[in-house]
Amino acid sequence: MITRFDGGHGLIVVRARIWGPSGSSLIPMALDTGASVSMINTARLLAVGYTTTATAGSSTVTTASGSEKAMLFDVSSIDALGAR
């Protein structure tokens, strides 16, 4: 599958489906080709059945605006751009 993007238009947002213990949900996600992990808003994860008591640990995430501590989750699946 080929998906074309215009790099001159700034942030590339794609629709992704996240799967969890109680179902799935479509969410917008920024495409970051340099990222080593995917970041998803906690409320989106809670909506598909993940709980904050069943995390895979935590990590410090560094962004352009600073560093934050973030919970890590093992997500069942993320589907985007024809890939899982």
Q: Any descriptors?
A:
globular, single chain, two-stranded antiparallel sheet, three-stranded antiparallel sheet, 84 residues, 5 strands, mainly beta, 7% helix
Overview of the structural elements:
This protein is mainly beta and 84 residues long. The chain has one domain. The chain is built from 1 helix and 5 strands. The strands form 2 sheets. Strands 2-1-5 form a 3-stranded antiparallel sheet. It has a two-stranded antiparallel sheet with strand order 3-4. The chain starts with 12 loop residues before the first strand and ends with a strand. The model has no long low-confidence stretch (mean pLDDT 88).
Summarize the model shown.
This protein is mainly beta. The protein contains 1 helix and 5 strands.
The helicity comes to: under 10%
Oligomer: single chain
How many domains? The number is: 1
Q: Gyration radius, to the nearest Å?
A: 14 Å
Order of helices and strands: EEHEEE
> What does the overall shape look like?
globular
Q: Order of strands across the widest beta sheet?
A: 2-1-5
Low-confidence stretches: none
Helix run count: 1
Q: How much of the sequence is in beta strands? A: 35-45%
- From the helix content, strand content and strand pairing, which structural class follows? mainly beta
Biggest β-sheet strands, sense, barrel? 3 strands, antiparallel
Question: What is the averaged pLDDT score?
Answer: 88
Distance between the termini: 13 Å
Please give the number of β-strands: 5
